[in-house]
Amino acid sequence: MSTPTNLENAAPAAPSDFIRDIVAAHVSEHKYPRVHTRFPPEPNGYLHIGHAKSICLNFGIAREFGGICNLRMDDTNPTKEDIEYVESIQADVNWLIGGWAEDRLGLKQNGQTPEAKMVDGKTDFFVPPVFGTSEEERKHSAVKLEPFYASDYFDQIYEFAVALIQKGKAFVCDMPPDQMDDYRRNGKASPFRDRSVAENLDLFTRMKNDEFPDGTRVLRAKIEVDAANIWMRDPLIYRIKHADHHQTGGKWCIYPMYDFAHCLSDYIEGITHSICTLEFEVHRPLYDWILESLDLPRPLPHQYEFAKLIPSHTIVSKRKLITLVQEKIVTGWDDPRLPTISGIRRRGVTAEALRNFAYNIGVTKYISLTDVAVYEHAIRDDLNKRAQRRLAVLRPIKVVITNYPEGQVEELNAINNPENPISGGRKLPFSRELFIERDDFAEVPPPKFFRLKPGGEVRLKYAYIIKCEEVIKDTAGNLVELRCTADLDSKTGGATSGRKIKGTIHWVSAAHCVDAEVRLYDRLFTEAEPEKDGRDFKSVLNPHSLEVLTAKCEPSLKEASLEERYQFERLAYFALDLDSQPGKLVFNRTITLKDAWAKEAQKS
Ligand code: ATP
Ligand code: MG
């Protein structure tokens, strides 16, 4: 397998930041044989927008510096993990980086256990195959690829723990968990700290051999009893846990802790730059201590930390996202209101839009709230370029054009996307009975109301100027229909089409339109920081985060597809939902055309 070490096929135009500066310096010093990053999710939940930032950073660096980024399941905690999460993570990563950094995605052959070997006193790192073949080739390839798993290394990690014991740098501790925490907090030595190497080896072997119940013994690194950094106070590195693991089944009853497994997994995979979020900064001395104490050959991987993405008006803690799903506050992990990658995808946001956002928001060491409006702007920007324009009426009111012959139908020309001339046009049927938006008519119009009012005129997009002659109501006074006349010389593109008129509204032909369920999604929380000052996030859920309506759509939307994106003119961007079936259209509102929240904020 050839290794992409050169910069020839590296991607240009990386946004610069402190991590990329470090990587660039290492590349120019030839510090490592190649740049090798990893994205290491724990399969205990679905990936979210914050992970998208980490994915774009890790795969972005691999892409820019001609390296590889491994997808690795950080699966050391079997009781919280599940194969459902493994699968969703894989699907989300593929969706997000497909066609962008797919040729940088390090995967391994199914069932293979990568191993860092020693050759001539140097570590010969395992080099994973890179995903770079086409979808077609992959389908027909005999070699099935899969993500890496920390659990692939349980044998090796176990051996590393034994090596640490042999060096007198780890001991088995029998203190009950509470007492151990207490001792660590107070910087007190465990009474088991000075056990002999032989006794430690014996006990650790017996821990592995299933001789002790959960919680009775742990393996601890022997570092410093009262270190200033509490993570260095003889931290726990192995624990007994009688639980089946989604990858290793019942093979193990002891599992390594994150801190022990992570640096060693990085080492085994030949990772050079182990990039994570700031909460791991305090763990870094331990990361280094473990690798150095094992006297592993250089160069060792190093950890670099950046500030998490914290978008406003949402939550990105896996534990809290699980609450929303389990308590059925949302419909599932892919509810379009969630910031999960699967929710984002279902809502109709494209991978490119999410990437543009996640790739360009910058990487720093300073924790701050990112206004979700920045993300929404990236979505609008993307959809504006690609969305097919369509006419649809969300809250219909009937209009009868009294001077238009009954039974006559005209096919009017409509433009698919003014931003993209090659997208062409389509025909819109026009007839005597139409629907317009309820909001586009006002019986008592406010000042500067340039839509339809009694006696007033408005242009129907791509069609005629109409005048409201009569307002028909039922006995209860409810609006039933509007009777209008059309200026039949005013057709768009027609002889007198140049007649100036202030307002243009959208419409559909009543006889030709199709019904669609539309799901109008909005922000899930009303407050920028749902948990500010310890508040329960459930107290600031947006009661209007979902409104479901039946819209009247122009007939071409019968052919709507999941891949396409739509702008319902003057309303919002929409995408077809997975719930659609032949004869039953369901559209999700991805995003409104304008930021109504900013307007609201300005008003107040
Ligand atoms: P957990 O509490 O389960 O550890 P987590 O969000 O940290 O949740 P991981 O699966 O450990 O989830 O995360 C995988 C990677 O994504 C880690 O490197 C982590 O630092 C990074 N990451 C997690 N949340 C964010 C975020 N909001 N912004 C940027 N990166 C993130
Ligand atoms: Mg984590």
Biggest β-sheet strands, sense, barrel: 7 strands, mixed
What is the helical fraction, as a range of percent? 25-40%
| Shape descriptor | elongated
Q: What integer is the average pLDDT?
A: 93
Q: Report the CATH C-level class of the largest domain.
A: Alpha Beta
Question: Count of helical segments?
Answer: 14
How many distinct folded domains? 3
Low-confidence regions: 1-9
The CATH homologous superfamily of the largest domain is called HUPs
The bound ligands are:
adenosine-5'-triphosphate, magnesium ion
- Architecture of the largest domain, according to CATH? 3-Layer(aba) Sandwich
Widest sheet: strand ordering:
17-30-31-32-28-29-18
N/C terminus separation: 61 Å
**β-strand number:** 32
The Rg value, from CA coordinates, equals 31 Å
**Helix-and-strand structural type:** alpha/beta
Beta-strand share of residues:
15-25%
CATH topology of the largest domain: Rossmann fold
